[in-house]
Amino acid sequence: MLSIYPACFFKEDTGYSVVFPDLNWLATSGSSLNDALQMAVDCLAGYLYTLKQDGDAIPSPSAFADISSENVAAELGVPSDGAFVNMVSVDVNEYARVHFEKSVRKTLTIPAWLNTAAQERNINFSQTLQEALLSKIRAKQS
């Protein structure tokens, strides 16, 4: 199912910033207009996918005519010169299938004794590696 939300695009020295007023001021940016639009699709898909996964309510999008880039710029305290509103659309389920849920095969080497010990204990290698990587990522973010 296609999800469509209005987004405000703001021209900056380094490219464009994009803000979704309906989604708690969700924001992203890109180095060019094309890059900003691609980033907006990715950002929208990720946000809606996370809401769905967490069981949170998905806000209804505003009508295009109800969003003013000047009002959003004033709310954010940024210049509205060159700002505009554009609708951003994404099929969240399809995007998630391709980008978020797709598994990638990795080949790795471990000592034979560790392999034997893990197999004797019926340890799921893929799950263990995922948990370890997530733990390491979280530790690096702190």
- Which CATH first-tier class of the largest domain would you pick? Alpha Beta
Q: What order do the helices and strands follow? A: EEEHHEHHH
How does the helix and strand content classify structurally?
alpha+beta
Total strands: the figure is: 4
Largest β sheet strand count, sense and barrel closure? 4 strands, antiparallel
* Structural domains: how many: 2
- Helix percent band: 40-55%
Spatial shape: elongated
pLDDT average, as an integer?
A: 92
Strand order of the largest sheet: 3-2-1-4
Radius of gyration: 21 Å
CATH architectural type of the largest domain = 2-Layer Sandwich
By CATH, the topology of the largest domain is Double Stranded RNA Binding Domain
Q: How much strand content do the residues show?
A: 15-25%
Distance, first to last CA: 36 Å
The DSSP helix count reads 5
In the predicted model, the low-confidence regions spanning at least 5 consecutive residues are none
Summarize the structure.
With 142 residues, the chain is an alpha+beta fold. Helix content is 46%, strand content 21%.
Note the topology.
Elements: E1 2-12, E2 15-20, E3 26-30, H1 33-54, H2 69-76, E4 84-91, H3 92-100, H4 112-120, H5 125-141
Antiparallel strand pairs: 1-2, 1-4, 2-3
Helix pairs in contact: 1-3
